[in-house]
Design a protein that fits this description.
The chain is α+β, with helices and mostly antiparallel strands and 264 residues long. The chain contains four helices and ten strands, in the order H-H-E-E-E-H-E-H-E-E-E-E-E-E. The protein has two domains: 178 residues, no CATH class; 46 residues, no CATH class. 18% of the residues lie in helices and 46% in strands. The strands form two sheets. A seven-stranded mixed sheet has the order 1-2-3-4-5-6-7. A three-stranded antiparallel sheet has the order 8-9-10, with no helix packed on it.
Length: 264
């Protein structure tokens, strides 16, 4: 009888825990009171002002937070736009720091982020002060280990991002889309950076369309006849104006010289 009751209570306890976890995952309870602590922790680690719109708790696969309207502000010398902007960010909490009485974020995963690389009038880029922060802020490398007493620089990664290149307040015609990048502090004076992206030019005229067909004939082993037709729908300087292009290409190749035996 006692064994049956224990099994019954165990099953009820597991079901209750499962229901609570599912409810927490679906409801995404808010953590507005922690918003200032999270933004302050990230700001101290990277040396820049951070703004967060809203915060929700995250339980799986690792305990942390989901941040909305995430902004990292840049130095005013680099313009009024933020250095980094993302609508959805997952922040993982470094649990071992809680045992030391500190609140630290170990990683930031950004989705659909926008990064502005800006060069000011002194030819300094917006990321330079971030890389030189080790001489101003006593922060440990990203994977310093549990024995490190200093706050650690978070591992920052982004997917489906866009990287803009700016000169002062003006954006240039060069950018990178579909970017995946990561930034971390490898050691005391060494940084790690990984970037994969598709470069584009916003001023390029990519409105030309068309098609082409090629026909090749080999009369013999030593000759080749090739004909090609190409049709183009080419954009002109005035917006909305196009020109039609019809091109015919003809090529004849004949090879002469000594050669070995062949089955022809």
């Amino acid at each position: 009888m006692n064994r049956f009751l224990l099994k019954s209570f165990s099953r009820r306890g597991l079901v209750t825990i499962a229901v609570i976890l599912i409810a927490l995952l679906v409801a995404r309870p808010g953590a507005g009171r922690l918003r200032w602590r999270i933004s302050n922790s990230i700001s101290l680690a990277i040396g820049k002002r951070v703004q967060i719109g809203s915060v929700h708790l995250r339980f799986l696969p690792r305990f942390g937070f989901e941040l909305d309207d995430f902004l990292i502000y840049d130095d005013p010398a680099h313009g009024s736009e933020p250095l980094l902007r993302a609508q959805d960010v997952t922040a993982t909490l470094r649990l071992i720091s809680m045992a030391r009485g500190r609140f630290e974020i170990s990683s930031l995963s950004l989705n659909d982020a926008s990064l502005n690389l800006t060069r000011d009038s002194d030819s300094r880029w917006s990321l330079e002060d971030l890389f030189q922060r080790t001489s101003q802020i006593t922060t440990a490398p990203t994977a310093a280990g549990y024995r490190e007493s200093r706050p650690e620089f978070p591992y920052i990664e982004a997917t489906h991002a866009r990287v803009n290149v700016k000169i002062g307040d003006e954006k240039t015609h060069f950018a990178m889309t579909d970017a995946e990048f990561a930034l971390w502090q490898e050691s005391e004076a060494v940084w790690g950076l990984r970037l994969k992206a598709r470069p584009i030019r916003t001023d390029a005229n990519l409105t030309d369309t068309g098609f082409s067909g090629i026909l090749t004939y080999w009369p013999s082993e030593f000759s080749q006849i090739r004909g090609q037709y190409r049709f183009g729908h080419l954009a002109l300087a005035n917006p909305g104006d196009f020109s039609l292009a019809n091109e015919f290409l003809f090529q004849f190749l004949f090879v002469m010289g000594a050669h070995g035996a062949h089955p022809f």
